[in-house]
Amino acid sequence: MADKTSGKTPVKSPRTGTDRRITPRGPGSAMWYALAFFLFLALGQAFFFSMQAGETVPYSQFKTLLREGKVQDVTVSADRLHGTIKAAGAQKARPFNAVRIEDPKLIEELEKGGVKYTGEVASRWVGELLGWIIPVVFLIAIWTFFFRRMGGAEGGVMSFARSRAKIYAEDDVKVRFGDVAGVDEAEEELREIVEFLKTPKKYTSIGGRIPKGVLLVGPPGTGKTLLARAVAGEANVPFFSLSGSEFVEMFVGVGAARVRDLFNQAEAKAPCIVFIDELDALGKVRIQTPMGSHEEREQTLNQLLAEMDGFDARKGVIIMGATNRPEVLDPALLRPGRFDRQVLVDKPDVRGREDILRIHVKNVIIADNVDLKVIAARTAGFAGADLANLVNEAALLAARRDKTAVEMKDFDEAIDRVIAGLEKKRVMSDKERRIVAYHESGHAIVATLLPGLDPVHKISIVQRGFGALGYTMQLPLEDRYLMTRSDLLGQLAVLLGGRSAEEIAFGEISTGAQNDLQRATDIARAMVTEFGMSDELGAVNYNGHKRSAFIDTPFMQERGNYAEETALKIDTEVKRILTEAHDTARQVLRGRRQTLDELSLRLLEKEVIEADELKAIMGPIPPKDPDAIPAEIPPV
Predict the structure, then answer these.
(1) Minimal CB count within 10 Å: which of 87, 389, 491, 520?
(2) Which of the following is catalytic: 393, 407, 440, 502?
């Protein structure tokens, strides 16, 4: 297979079958050899002339020697004189040369002195030849050098129209389906692609047609790229990999040219897989705005659509794309005949997280007390990349402490580090530490007493991350995909529990509840404008904007299309919901004021309190119905 990135052509060895790489020699090498030859010739001529010329004397000295009769013979040329000075005593005759000056009496004086003289016609063809050939050859060599650098296969200015795809041979792709876990449904969908690439006649013999394009959609870090490589590894076919942003350049028409070049290369390597990562960078919906559209990107997208239309699926070329923003893709890209199959690669459930952890701990020495089921339960919402980072962080923490194996404590600390951020070693005043302790205790008590909420796993007043002076960690007992109105109301009360605890304990509030207020406001506004959970405004979506399914964005991006009166009602409803949640949090904490003081004092002493110790401090708690709306929170 030709290597498009190195500029070298692999040739099969007849004996071993291995690849030998032969570097082709271009015309530039011959030009350099010619230039070296002419330079050597010029140096040889100069050396020969210097050896023949002898001593250089001024013309006036030559005339003096001539008058004194010391010149033996002279050869006269158009611009020089060279000859021999007579021997004198112990000195031998020696050659000389001089630059000729216009002198009409020279021949007369030579005859008068009896000096033998001859004429010479200078043959300067070598000098003249070198005088114009050497500069020409040098310029051609320089031009060839820069032209090859600009248009070389390694990528230069003149190669911008070539595809930037990285090509992996069949043996270079080592990933298999066994290296992928937690996405069983997506894996089953893609096994059909593998079967088609291995045995295409099984489908084409009865008139079937494999999908031209397969689009992998899902949140970041779930393994979309890994799945595409696994398909190529299982099918044992070449794999073209590139990003959607690599098509678009500052030059108009470059993206379309790269698309054409990519499909030409793929057709030559068929059967193969072409994988375009971050497809949304190339395939965004085409819209006309007052400021004008991005003409280059649209031309590139149009070329991609045309190539996928004219591509013969029977040749065994599968186009695979990956994106975490399918809502922004152009509808023409998703119609049947192009990316006509969409495969969801979602975040794994608890069983999938355990399988992913087992893959990542294969190369890590773990202690006997490590329970991957417990770690998987504590990492709800983690994607595959998050779990890989978690295992690596735990291994680094264990190595930092000179341990021979990674223990459960290292995994617990790694979870805190991934979720809450890096621990900070800063000194706080006693007053601020007390405020933070009461604040986090308020969150924990409200979360423990209200029904339908995730249990509290850990409370800490250790500073972590960006400005987090403390945190209360809740870990779900199971994966949840829906949130009821009572669940959201309970979350609002928990978020406002920290601010309520400060009011009860100190009679004033601090800036520590800034993030809590922002998150609570976003949830309340979403309840009113998106989820239709307000009796006053009814089951109407007032947002008007489609939210990304896989990327967390703020609840309210822009104002929807509604009247000013409706906007006033929305603000009134949001404020009412938050006020009632705030009242609920205060009511719960006033009923447990003694527990609030005791938990805060224990936090000041230990800085970190686990779930078991929290249960001991809280005492017996009446059983709660998780499906019931909390009595303390009036229904909306």
Answers:
(1) 87
(2) 440
